[in-house]
Amino acid sequence: MRRHSSGSSEDDDAPPVDTSHVNSSRFRTNDLRPSAHPASKLDRRRSADRRPSFSISRRSSGVNWQLPEPRNGNGTIEKRSSPDRTSPSSTLGLIMTANGQLQAKEVEKAPETGAVGRRPPWRSPWAISFLALVASIVGIGCLIAVLHSSVTRQIDPKGCRMSYMRPSYAKLNEFDTEHTRLASKYSLYLYREQGIDHDTKVRGVPVLFIPGNAGSYKQVRPIAAEAANHFHDVLQHDESAIKAGVRSLDFFTVDFNEDISAFHGQTLLDQAEYLNEAIRYILSLYLDPRISDRDPDLPDPTSVIVLGHSMGGIVARTMLTMPNYQSNSINTIITMSAPHTRPPVSFDSQSVQTYKDINDYWRRAYSQQWANDNPLWHVTLVSIAGGGLDTVVPSDYASVESLLPDTHGFTVFTSTIPNVWTSMDHQAILWCDQFRKVVAQAIFDVVDVHRAAQTKPRAERMRVFKKWFLTGMESVAEKTALRLDPSTLLTVDDNSDSIIAEGERLVLRGLGTAGTVRAHLMPIPPSGSPGMKRFTLLTDIKLDKPGEHGKLEVLFCSVVPSQPSQSWTGFPSQMDLSKGSSGSTRLACRTAGPDVVVLPASTRSTHYPFYTDGEQELTPFSYLEYGVDDIAEHQFVAVVEKATTPTQGFLIAEFSDYTQSHRTRHISLWRLFAFGLKFRLPADRPMVSEIKVPSLRSSLLAYNLRISHQNCDGKTELFAPLLRQYLTEPYESKYFVNAREAAVSLHGVAPYVPPPLTGKSDEDGLSFQFWTDPTCNSSVHVELTADFLGSLGKLYMRYRTVFAAFPLFIVALVLRKQFRVYDTTGVFITFLEGLDLCLRQSIPLMLASLTFLTLSTRNTASAGKANFWHWRNGTGWIMDFHQNDLLIGTEDPLFLFLIPLIAIICVGVCVVIHYMALTLTHLLSAVASLMTFRSGWTRNEDRSKAMPAPFFSPSPRRRMITGAVLLLLVTTVVPYQFAYLVACLVQVITTARAQRIASELRSASNSNFYNYVHSIFILMLWILPINLPTFVVWVHNLAVHWLTPFTSHHNVLSVMPFIILIETHTTGKMIPRMGNRLKHVTSILLFGIAVYAAVYGVTYAYTLHYLANFLALWLAVVHSTSDSWSLTGLNHLYAGNVEDRKRGKEP
Question: Active-site residues: which are they?
Answer without folding.
Answer: 310
